[in-house]
Every structure is written in C-alpha cells, then in structure tokens.
Amino acid sequence: TGKFTYDPGFLSTASCNSTITYIDGDKGELLYRGYPIEQLAVNCDFLDTCHLLLYGDLPNADQRTDFHGRVTNHTMVNEQMQFFLRGFRRDAHPMAILTGLVGALSAFYHDSTDINNPQHRDIAAIRLIAKMPTLVAMAYKYTVGQPYMYPQNDLSYAGNFMRMMFATPCETYKVNPVIERALDRIFILHADHEQNASTSTVRLCGSSGTNPFAAIAAGVACLWGPSHGGANEACLNMLGDIQKMGGVAKVGEFMNQVKDKNSGVKLMGFGHRVYKNYDPRAKLMRETCHEVLGELGLQNDPLFKLAMELEKIALEDDYFVARKLYPNVDFYSGIVQRAIGIPVPLFTAIFALARTVGWIAQLNEMIADPEYKIGRPRQLFVGAAPRDVPPLSAR
Ligand code: CMC
User: Fold this and answer.
1) pLDDT (tens digit, 9 = 90+) per residue, 52-70?
2) Where in the sequence is the active site (predicted)?
3) Which one of 165, 188, 334, 394 has the minimum C-beta count within 10 Å?
4) Among this protein's residues, is 154 annotated catalytic?
5) Model pTM greater than 0.90?
6) Sheet holding 29-32, edge to edge
7) Which residues does a 6 A CB cutoff place in the pocket of ligand 1?
C-alpha cells in the first residue's frame, strides 16, 4: 500500500500511447488519425474508415479497390458455424450469441490466431471486419426463425448487411440508398473511440498473447453493458417505458425521477465520460436521424416525437445544464435503428460490428509497441491483516 496510485475508473490514468483516435472532450472534437469525424462522415464510407484506422491513412484508388476486394472475399463464415448457432435458445440475447460466435471464429481460422504474427493479425482483421455483418445477421435470422441469407458481394458493406438482415429467399430485396447511407454513417461514427471500456478490455485481453478472435470476443462482452454500448438499447427501452406511463405528457414526471438520486433512474443516451460540451457524433447522428425519419415518413411516430420532446426538455433543464449532460451518439443511433426496422436487442450487436475495426487497430498498435507488456493493474489492499486459520469448532 502507498506505492501505487489509486484511480478507480481510470479517471486520470493513461494506459498507452496511441496514434489512432484523438478526442477533445471540452471542444467536442473527434479525429480518426487526424481527420475530423465530420469530414469522414460526409466524404468517406465505412470501409475507407476501416483502412484509415487499420493502416494509418485513407486508401488511394488502388488501395481502395484492393481493400474492398479483400474484405468482400471473406464475408462468408464457415458452414459449421450455423451448427454452433443452433445450440442457442431462439430467445437468446443477440449479444450473448455474438460473444460466442466471435470467440468461436478462433476454432475455424487457424491461420490467423497467432497474435504476435503481423500477417496473422492482418488476416484476422480482414476476417473479423468481413464476417461481423454476417454473424450479426445470422444471429438475428436465427431468433426470428428465418433462413440465413448468404452475403452478396456486389453490394456495399452496409447494403449487404441490410440484405442479410431483411431479405428472404422468396422475394427480391432492394436496398434503400438513404437507409444504406445512414447505416454506413452509424458504422463510421462507432468505429473507434480511443481507450473506452471495451477497447481497454481488448487491449488487456490481447496483452496476454491470446488470439485476436478471443480478444475481440472480450470486447463484445464488455460492450454489452448498459453504461457502454448497451445504452442505445437501454435508451429505446426507456422511451418505451415513458410511452407506457402516458407518453409526452409524462416526460416531466420522468425527469423528476431522473433528478431524484435515490431513484437510480438515469436518462439513457445522455452524458459521457469525456464529452462535457457535446458529443460530435451525436450532432451528425441527429442529422441522419431526421433524414431517415423523413425518408420513412415517421416524423409523427409517437415514440420519435417523445424522443424529440425529451431531448428538448433535457437540454433546457438546470440539472442537465449544470452537469454538462448532452445527448450522446446512442440517443440518436437507437432511434435511427428502430426506424430502419432493426429490433432493439440487436442495437448493441450493430455497435459491436462497427467497433470491431477500432478494437483490432488498437490491438495491432499495442502488439507493435516495443514497450508493450502484459496488462497487470495493481491494487491497494484494504482487507484483513494476517491471521491464523481457526479450527472448524472455533469458527
Ligand atoms: N442521467 C442522469 N444523471 C446523469 C447521467 C444521466 N444519463 N449521466 C451522468 N449523470 C449525473 C451523475 O449522477 C452525476 O451527478 P452528481 O454530480 O450529482 O453526482 C453527474 O451527472 C456526473 O456523472 P458521472 O456519473 O460522474 O459521469 P461518468 O463520466 O462517470 O459517466 C456515463 C458517464 C456515460 C456512464 C453516464 O453519463 C451514463 O450512465 N449515461 C447513461 C448511459 C449512456 O448513455 N451511455 C452511453 C455513453 S456513449 C456510448 C459509449 O461510449 O459507449
């Protein structure tokens, strides 16, 4: 005791040097490899962003064709995976399924399991980025009892995912370009966020030398929690609860519960550990949210009206203003996903799909760092002083 700094929640501890993502929480800035998120969201697609995060810069035209080709080459998963999937209950949470499926990849792709081999890591990265949409869609199709749709590689990354989710073999499916773009933007905005809980989990897990698939599965598990990636699901559930209480008329009453510290109720989709001004991702997602609601004619849907009312009231409320609590990306991404027709329990799985590239880029950076060591936090021991074990009769 006394030798170590006590920093619960890592509020002031930097765990690594990183060149990937820069956040200025006070200014509300987010940059991937130096490029502002606002420009990436408008001028690039998700696979460009993946190239940027993985290899350090945006691809030129040839690199782009090559990278897209490599990813689309790996979109199918081993047929055996469906038998593993069949072991789950049909009503299993998609994140429970996804944690299992991602971990199981290491049992199928033995040529990409050596974390210390850069080639293995690269193939693992491509495989994970390519297969995540397939796995998420399979998990969904399984829970609704529909046949899996195989990937269609002439579609965009987001378009292919939409088709695997929503098409059936008995009808022609047409990708709506507004929704395709919205989904692609959700992926870009969730692609990386420096040393958040799941990314730190991936680094810590990978630091033991485990295989990349296992490390990413650990990230999926961590992301599931409602304080992290589970917030978009929790936010939609919260809106549903307010709806049941009586909808827009009850927002004030609900806000009083949030402000009562004893209630344990939080306004989900609000607040952030780092952004204390606004979340730049939320600003972009808000735009997309309105575009999608307009495209689908859902502006007057009661749940969306409720969300907009809640946003307005919270932004003007002294409690939220004083604590610098603003809507975060998950407030709007949940609304967009629901509008698109994605079932609420799948929201976090889509976040995991998008964050996978960030996790791998961070893992690669850590392994390539000559100073990297197994992560091993210390503790301040506050338990019992040494004592003798009493005999059973004396306990
Ligand atoms: N609703 C009501 N009060 C809140 C909220 C909220 N959503 N968030 C923070 N507060 C209060 C908190 O009670 C505290 O009040 P006081 O100063 O009186 O004790 C104050 O604001 C500061 O909060 P904190 O708990 O110290 O903040 P934190 O940095 O530890 O927590 C957070 C950040 C994101 C976990 C938290 O804001 C939260 O639980 N938000 C809701 C869940 C959510 O939307 N999470 C998604 C984050 S964005 C996506 C991602 O990165 O995964």
Assistant:
1) 999 999 999 999 999 999 9
2) 272, 330
3) 394
4) no
5) yes
6) 21-24, 29-32, 35-36
7) 193, 196, 227-229, 231, 258, 266-273, 323, 325, 328-330
